[in-house]
Amino acid sequence: MEENRIQKKDIASYSYEELISEMEKIGEKPFRGKQIFSWIHEKLADDFLKMTNLSGAFRKKLDCLYEVPKVQMVARQISKKDPTEKFLFELVDGSMIESVLMKYDYGNSVCISSQVGCRMGCRFCASAIGGLERNLMPSEMLGQVYQIQKLTGERISNVVIMGTGEPLDNYDNFLKFVRLLSDEHGLHISQRNITVSTCGIVPNMKRLAEERLQITLALSLHGSNQEKRKMLMPVAGRYELSEVMRACDYYFEKTGRRPTFEYSLVKGVNDGEEDARELIRLLRDRNCHLNLIPVNPVKERGFERPERKNALAFKNKLEKNGINVTIRREKGSDIDGACGQLRRRYADAKKER
Ligand code: SAH
Question: What's the pLDDT tens digit per position in 127-145?
Answer without folding.
Answer: 888 899 999 999 999 999 9
